[in-house]
Amino acid sequence: MANQLSQHFTYSKLIKFVISSVIMMIFTSIYGVVDGLFVSNYVGKTPFAGLNLIMPLLMILSSLGFMIGTGGSAIVSKTLGEGESKKANEYFSMLVYVTLIIGIVLTISGEIFLRPIALLMGADENLIEYCVLYGRILLLSLPAFMLQNLFQSFLVTAEKPQIGLAVIVIAGITNIIGDFLFIAVFRWGLAGAGIATALSQVMGGFIPFIYFSRKNTSLLRFTKTRFNGKILFKTCTNGSSELMTNISISLVSMIYNFQLMSVAGEDGVSAYGVIMYVNFVFVAIFIGFSIGTAPLIGYNYGSGNHKELQNLFKKSLVIVSITALFLFTISQILSSPLTKIFVGYDESLFNMTSHGFKIYAISFLINGFNIAGSSFFTALGNGLISALISFLRTLVFQVSALIILPIFFGINGIWASIAVAEFLAVIVTVIFFVKNKEKYHYL
């Protein structure tokens, strides 16, 4: 029986198929940005710096859900492509339950060890209490947030990306309204931001959980299952690139904060926080596109449809190229207006942030190819290559650039390090695609 995954994709059909995932990721990023916007303008730059300092830890923990979602959806979509619907649903159900259990364990552990971890991350006496306050609230909703990250991939595999979009919109509206009420109206400060985000994550995680628990018209639903260590291990190794990407980004964020604290102090951390908020929205477009195309790649690889796999590869390359040029151009035009929204109240901080963002934004010309390339190999089931691209891109190259460039260029070297890292990574990505074209037949 034909389904959406098996059709031939023109440019219009491909964009139509992935647009829900793209918008979904943009909304996810935007409602994450809202906290920073309200905290910076209503609570102050010190709590804003505290939020930004603890955020990398929360992202590392939640990225486990993203890993299981991307790695697992590749396996499930491939299994669907092989005609094994019952087995695909068993795998899907098992992975969801495992994610929920892991989330609960991490919440308990995080609540116990949050303060010493925050101190190790560089929090001083001015920031520590803000880090602990915000972190402990968000840890309570961590299981739901992990499920949200997981379902973003599986809803596409289930041929229901529009439901994923609707869920994210609902979660985003919940966060925005919550921030307005709890921060601007009730004046609950940083705690209000944490509560608003936690409520939105609960919505984002458990609405899809309820959907798959009931009879539905998608390709996936919860069914009787049993623990399958082999599939879980394959899922984790296959999705390890996405985990590595998120962990590396978070670790690199910590290094950015250390470097900026030494060069520019608290203002440097705040400036980086603003840049990263805007960066999340821009990069979300590439991530959303990759999430949307992954099930198509996995399905056609599993069914042996090499012609369609080649079609998807070529069209993806064109779409990413056009998007990269657009994002770079718009980032240069909007750098000052976007910065002003966050820190327009402080002239020196505004100037530092706007200047830094223009340099940082050079990376938008390149990073989409690396994000899509890593995701492509994940969808093909080659977690090793995918993880290697992510590891080099987000950790090795970027940390090296962060250490070396500031010695010669000061704070401008810090802002430019991401672009240098992405350039080196795209060379590696191209090499892997060329070397593996005969194995996977995408060229």
Describe how the helices and strands are arranged.
Elements: H1 11-43, H2 45-81, H3 85-120, H4 128-140, H5 142-157, H6 161-185, H7 190-213, H8 229-238, H9 240-264, H10 266-303, H11 306-343, H12 347-360, H13 367-379, H14 383-409, H15 411-435, H16 437-440
Helix pairs in contact: 1-2, 1-6, 1-7, 1-10, 1-11, 2-3, 2-4, 2-5, 2-8, 2-9, 2-10, 3-4, 3-5, 4-7, 5-6, 5-7, 5-10, 6-7, 9-10, 9-14, 10-11, 10-12, 10-13, 11-12, 11-13, 12-15, 13-14, 13-15, 14-15
Description:
This protein is an all-alpha fold and 443 residues long. The protein has one domain. It is 85% helix and 0% strand. It is built from 16 helices and no strands. Helix 2 packs antiparallel against helix 3 and helix 5 packs antiparallel against helix 6. The longest helix has 38 residues. The protein starts with 10 loop residues before the first helix and ends with a helix. The model has no long low-confidence stretch (mean pLDDT 89).
Our measurement of the CA-to-CA distance between the termini, rounded to an integer number of angstroms, reads 28 Å
Task: List the total number of helices.
Answer: 16
Number of strands: 0
User: What structural category do the secondary elements indicate?
Assistant: mainly alpha
Helix-strand topology string: HHHHHHHHHHHHHHHH
Gyration radius, rounded: 21 Å
In short:
The protein has helices at 11-43, 45-81, 85-120, 128-140, 142-157, 161-185, 190-213, 229-238, 240-264, 266-303, 306-343, 347-360, 367-379, 383-409, 411-435, 437-440. It is mostly helical and 443 residues long.
